[in-house]
Amino acid sequence: MKEYSDIQLVDMLHEGNSRAFEEIYKRYWFKLYGIAFHHLGVKEECEELVQNVFLSIWNRRESVRIKRLDVYLTVSIKNQIYDFIKSQISYRKYQEYIILQEVVQSSVPFQTLHYSELSEAVEAALARLPEKSAEVFRRSRFHNQSVRQIAEDLHLTDKTVEYHITKSLKFLKESLWMYNSKN
Prior knowledge:
The chain is mainly α.
């Protein structure tokens, strides 16, 4: 089927030709995987996203009219990557929320805690973190900077910033145990 152009393959695919689909898969799998790997760097996640693109094209073969196959597939994988990253960020923010809620809800309610005392304890704990982790945490929590903004300012990847935030939150939870009850 290598003698067919992309336009011909798309027309054949639209008619339900599975061999045309196989040829499209062979022609474009590695390119799409390369794009995904460039953005994510994790083999299994990249393979899954590429698979989703091809599954979508097969399932929608009768309803979607594709004019430029290479462009359509490139945009599709980029959309998959964007959605994946967005879901990962949402999941990590949820994890951070749960950790903070545990700290807040397990605080001893009958013990009066002055803000300055807690603030000093937090600063002391942050001083024991690696410098980069503490800086990322301060930018995120005290200066309300987004993950993307921190990553750009510090020349880090989004995943690295998220790692530092998660690491810092866990460390603070462990370090500030004396402000929590064992209820």
